[in-house]
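User: I'm new to structure prediction. If I give you an amino acid sequence, what do you actually give back? Let's try with this one:
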Amino acid sequence: MEIARLDCGDDVYSGVPPLNRSGFEELAERYDTDFTTTPVGSALRRIVWARLENVFQPSQRILELGCGTGEDAVRLARGGIDVVATDASPAMLAVAREKARRAGCLERTDFQCIPIEAVGRVLQGQRFDGVFSNFGALNCVRDLSSLSADLSHLVRVNGALVWVVMGRSYAADWFNRSPRTLAALTRLEELAQGSSALASWSDHYLLEARRSATPAG
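Assistant: Good question. You get back a string of structure tokens that encode the predicted 3D arrangement of the chain. For your 217 residues, that looks like this:
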């Protein structure tokens, strides 16, 4: 079955580095096989989902940055959360939308082709109860200060921000081949979420914050 691609106008890419625009296009069709459904991908995502279930609530409207193939958007939507899921890759978004269709949650997912650097401009005037980004999408953003300022105008007061950033090294193939090592990694990742001392040893680190009463910028 051919998956329909979402059309992304050239204007949304204004000022966005070329890597962020096209770097993940060729990965879309195999991303779930190469990462999402692997032992390490599943283990890391379970850690993230456990945190999300404590942060976001049904009926809330959440902005997802760098949604990829939509695995997290579908999970949130199945929990009764409305998700505006954004990504710079039309190919990734096509896979994500088809995944949401198969899961029967298209009514709670709004997939939009928006690079992270452009969310403040494209979504200006909209309001969200929180913002979420998983598995290193934010590692591709050069100016996090500008992004934070943009998000402060999109997220309601006391809205939650949950970011998952990646460390400098990542040995997924090794962990996938060794169940014992994968178990050790999973335990380390769980402990690292509550310990700044262990954070430097973590491949993926969860950052959580709340929108203050005074917007940045």
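You can read the tokens as a compact description of the fold. Here is one thing that stands out. Residues 100 and 119 are 22 Å apart (CA to CA).
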